[in-house]
Amino acid sequence: MLVPNDSVSVLALQTPRIRKRSLPLAVGYIPLLDSILLGRENATIQELLSAESIRELTSRTPIFIYGPSGTGKTAVAVTLATRWINDAPSRTYTMIHANDFAKSLARSIDADDMHRFRSQFRECDCLLVDAVQELAGKPAAQDELTESIDQVQHRGGLVVITSCLLPQLIQPWKEALASRMIGGYSVEMSFPSKTTRLEILKRLAQFQDIDIPFEELSVLNDQLPDNQSAMQLRGILSRWQHHKKATEPTSRTPPKILERLAEIHAPNTPTPNDIAKAVAKELHLTLESLRGPSRKANVVRGRGLAMFLIRKWTETSYQGIGLLFGNRDHTTVMHACKKTEDDLKADYALSQSMERIRQRFF
Q1: CB of 307 within 8 A of CB of 343?
Q2: What angle do CA 319, 320, 324 make, to 5 degrees?
Q3: Element (H or E) spanning 35, and its range?
Q4: Tens-digit pLDDT profile for residues 97-113
Q5: Regions in the chain scoring below 70 on pLDDT
Q6: How many whole angstroms separate alpha carbon 76 and alpha carbon 78?
Q7: Could you give the CA distance from residue 254 to residue 345 in angstroms, rounded to a whole number?
Q8: Side-chain half-sphere exposure of 50, counting CA atoms within 13 A
């Protein structure tokens, strides 16, 4: 139910009840609150979740929810699907993260059990696929998802998809799947505005039993940039709590301290070796292969990414990077960095790998 709170609405999060012939919730998200707060910046999401919209939801399918990571797309998508599912006792569902969809497909192919796989994803009443951008560069999984969308919709069911990007910005991506995803109702989800963010901070403080004065909470909120997720807001409140435990709990926190507490701190800068190990792990390579003479395409690609990130995130010189990677000449490192920088603009899978590596450190 949406409950108005001035310009902010409160949406109670829901997950589907276990039903026969349904795949239990497997999108892998753990909400920090029992509700999601939606301000005017997400008015379209509010409308989508209204009772009238839920009744007519299949006329808009597939529902494509996109926006930056951390905006709450998964929580909204699951709640949206759940409300539609619960409108009828016999509706079945399959909810899955895109990576798990691809893994399930690979296992089914290996086991020669495609019938069971297709039954799970094509014969349900509601299909939810989270983080669909993770299927970039996986043509077989894209083909299967395209057919699953067609089959579910043909049976009068509901399809809900989330993504960080619009289909036309995901590369490499099949046109058939892109056309399916934009053929229904696309809605963007934004980070909370300052007004909404303050309400989220208040609820997080209550949930964590943090007794922070409203005046200090407001000062913290005013210092924050616009792209804050609930997880980041919880971290800021935790920093405030630790500060109060280390000082006089009853005293007011000076504005300068509040300003520092609101800063988005990054961990210590990773070492070049840390970055090289992270790249090797992300791309399923060995550190030895990155440092060695191999000219295999996947190794060269990984080596270039490691060199680029070391140069970007540390003060290591081109010559120093060359020494780390088998005593290569600094001009070789410069070329690899420039090529990787260009590749990142066109290779979505590579840019996603870089983002996952960045999240490990920052």
Answers
A1: no
A2: 115
A3: strand 35-38
A4: 998 899 999 999 999 99
A5: 1-6, 24-30, 249-250, 264-269, 362
A6: 6
A7: 44
A8: 10
Residue 128: beta bridge partners? 95, 160
d(CA 218, CA 229): 17
Residue written as token pair 């590749």: 343
Q: Between the CA of residue 121 and those of 83, 104, 106, 334, what are the distances in Å?
A: 20, 11, 14, 47
Q: Which residue has the tokens 């996986």?
A: 138
Alpha-carbon gap, residue 49 to 65, rounded angstroms: 12
Answer whether 230's CB lies under 8 Å from 33's CB.
Answer: yes
Strand order of the β-sheet with 2-5 is 2-5, 8-12, 35-38
pTM (2 d.p.): 0.72
Q: What pLDDT does 266 receive?
A: 42
- The pLDDT, as a whole number, for residue 25 is 57
Q: Which of 82, 105, 84, 100 is nearest to 18 (CA)?
A: 82
pLDDT for res 3: 45
pLDDT at residue number 2: 45
Report the distance separating Cα 148 and Cα 141, nearest Å: 10
What letter does residue 24 receive in the DSSP assignment? E
